[in-house]
Amino acid sequence: MAEIADPTPNQEAAKKALRRFIENIEKTKRVVCLHDSDADGVTAGVVWQRAMEQLGFTDVKRLSATRERNAFAPETKTIIAAEKPDFLFVMDLGSQPQKIVENVPTCFIDHHRPGGALSVDTLISAYTWNPVPNTSLIVYDLFSALTDLSQYDWIAAIGIISDLGEKAPFELLAAARQKYTAKWLKEAVSLVNAARRAAVYEPETAAQALLTFTNPKDLVSSDTAQVERLRAAKREVNVELNEARKAAPVFAGKVALIRMNSPCQIHPLIAQSWRTRLPKYIVIAANESFMPGKVNFAARTSADGVSVLDFLRSFKLENVGTGSYGQGHDQASGGVLPIMAWNELLKKMGFPDGAFAKMK
Questions:
Q1: How far apart are CA 79 and CA 7, in angstroms?
Q2: Which of the listed residues 75, 153, 185, 358 has the most CB atoms within 10 Å of its CB?
Q3: Burial status of residue 237 (CB atoms within 10 A of its CB: 0-12, 13-18, 19 or more)
Q4: What's the pTM?
Q5: Average predicted confidence (pLDDT) for the chain
Q6: DSSP 4
Q7: What does the pLDDT look like over 169-215, one tens digit per residue?
C-alpha cells in the first residue's frame, strides 16, 4: 500500500511545505497549475500565476478545471499530461492518494476535507485550521512569504467573499473592503462566478479579466469585450435562477430534493437558498440538463451535527462510472453522476420512482 502524505496542521507548517516544494523547482522548468473554476479557484490560480512570475519562473501554465471539476477524471489527466509539466499544482479541487501525471511532483493546496495524497507529493490542507481559510487566501498568504503580492489583495478578497461571505473573519478581507469598498468587490465576485455558471463555460474569461485590471472597480466598470461577456453570462444565469426558484422540493426522510433542467450551473445557488428555508434538512438541488447524460447536484445543510460529506459517502453505488460525489465541505458537497447512478442514489435515499431523472 502506498504511503500517504500528512496534511499541514497550521499555516507555519504550510509555509514550510510550500517553500520546500518551490525550492526543488528550477526556474526554467515547466510548472502547471490546475485550479477550480469558481471564484475561489480562479482567483487562487491568478494569484499563483502572478506569484510564480514574480519569483522568476519562466514557463508557467495555469488551467481552469473542466466543467466536471474533477482533477482525477481521465479527461483531466489527459489534458494535464498534454501540457508536459515538470511540476504540478492542484488548487481547490480536493486531493486523493493517486497521481494525476505519473512521475510529476504535485502540490495540492486546498481547504476541503482532504482525501489524502501520496507521500511523494505535498498536501497543503487548511481543513483543520481555525478559522478555515478559502483557497485564494491560502495561496495569497503562503506565497506572500516568498514575494510581495500586496497589489493582488483584491483578487484574493474576491475568492474569500465568494466562498466564505463578506463577513469572513480575515484581516485581508477587512482591509480590502476598506480599500476597495464592499460594493465593487461583491460585483466583481458575481461577474467572475458567472463565467462558469453560464451555459457557455468559460472561466478563462474571468481569469483574463482579473489579470487585466488592477482593482475591482475598474473591472466592474469596464466595457471591454471580456467584461461584456461576463455581464451577458450573469444576465443569463439570473434568468435561469428565477425559473428554477419556482420548483418545489420533494421529501424523503430528512432529505429535500429540488429538481431543475437548466444549461446553467445554478444548482449550488438553489441549494444554498433552500438551505436556510429548510434548516433541519439536507437540501439537494439536482440539475438534469447541465451535462449530457449526467446529473449535477449540490447538497447543503444547516442542521446541527450533520455532515453532508458523511451522508453522501454512506451510500455505496454500483454504477458511478466516470462520476464522482461526496467531496468538499461538511455542510456543502455534491457531485456529478451518470443518470443510472443518480437514480440508484435517489432510490437508496428513499425517494419514489417519480423523483428519478429520465434517460435522455
A1: 27
A2: 185
A3: buried
A4: 0.94
A5: 95
A6: B
A7: 999 999 999 999 999 999 999 999 999 999 999 999 999 999 999 99
C-alpha cell at 164: 466564505
Specify whether the CB–CB gap between 334 and 287 falls below 8 A. Answer: no
Q: pLDDT for 267-324, tens place per residue?
A: 999 999 999 999 999 999 999 999 999 999 999 999 999 999 999 999 999 878 777 8
Q: Which helix (H) or strand (E) holds 190?
A: helix 182-197
Neighbours of 37 (CB within 10 A): 28
| Structural element, H or E, at residue 297 | strand 294-301
C-alpha span between 215 and 211 (Å, rounded): 10
CA 184, CA 189: separation in Å to the nearest integer? Answer: 9
Interval 45-79: pLDDT, tens = 999 999 999 999 999 999 999 998 999 999 999 99
Distance CA 134, CA 354 (A): 38
Strand partners, 333: 299
| Cα 300 from Cα 256, distance rounded (Å) | 10
Amino acid 163: pLDDT: 94
Contact predicate 217/184, CB 8 Å: yes
What's the gap between Cα 295 and its chain centre?
18
